[in-house]
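Structure tokens please, single chain.
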Amino acid sequence: MTAVSPNIFPSDAVLDMEGGRGRSSEPGRLFIKIDPEKPQVAVIIDDVPPKSKMTIEEGLYPLLASMKLFGLYSSRPRSAAGDSQEKRSRKQTAYLVYAVAIVVVMWINALRMFSAFTHDDVFGLALLHKFSGIIWAVQCAIAQSAFCAASFSGRLATVFLQVMEDSCAGHARKFSAFFAVLSWTIVGLGAAFFAYGLFVTDGYMDNMLTPFQTHIPVSHPLFPRIVAWLLGSYQMSAFIFTQTTTLVLTMVFSTQFKKVIAALGQCLDNNGQRQVSDSDIELLRQKHQQISMNVDHVDDCLMFSNASAFCSQVSSVIILLYSLVFYHSLMINAVFTTSYVFWLFVITVGLVMTAAGGITVHHYVSQLNVLLING
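Here you go.
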């Protein structure tokens, strides 16, 4: 621990964190680049002026813009030519009202689904379908509420407003566009299957219109079906886009942890005695703490959403599998059976993403903690 490699910061070095002031509370200039011709010279990567000052929010614009359309994300208003502070404030207030209104409607819809049960219900495909509808509605309402709260509290902004490196900025838009197109494709297919069940199957899915048709018979339920389809589209968007964003956040945090691990490995590789000075260990710990705080900030708002997503997805997978295995003969046609298979696939993938995200971040946190302790 006491040996100092010539390729890393000496123990008495003072880092210029903010405009020449010797501060180390924000370890933003940690990673170094070694000149192979002059190994005794360490170049701080963060000191090199970046070619592009692109934030994570700007890089992920296609995905975040899609989320904003459904009230799942709100970016901070920026100054623009001709826009006064009052005008920007009105825009932010209007979007806040829109996002909160969607959350309220989502919870009203979740409560509405509990009225789908009647005294005539018996165990079978119809009852299982009602249970899956309730689980789906509650989970989507929780996800919508969690991301709305995380967005307007600024927890997501602490991550998305960070500046990306040049190596990442060039691929960010393609990365975001791919996930946005994939998410919209799944939402579109889900909306199409839902529309088929509501409008083409001659009332086979009218239990989704509850309390209409279940407790209040309607001779021409076109309008309730349209409302149910719109609600279902918002639910699918809440489910798909929140899952995708959770995956993106996991990848961001994992990349940041891997960079700290790589910096520590570089320090050890360039030191013949495989030791790192106390000052460099402290810098690594500070960077680790900074990333961990970002994880905690986001997790404080999204942990209930992730936990409920895991539980609801496990329940939905069991119900869908049971329905396909034991009641496939009662499904009216091949299109309806295909919709069950489609949702089984989507929810299974979401379950894997939810579980893998938590495991991946925990793995890198544990690995870095071990390296820092042993260092």
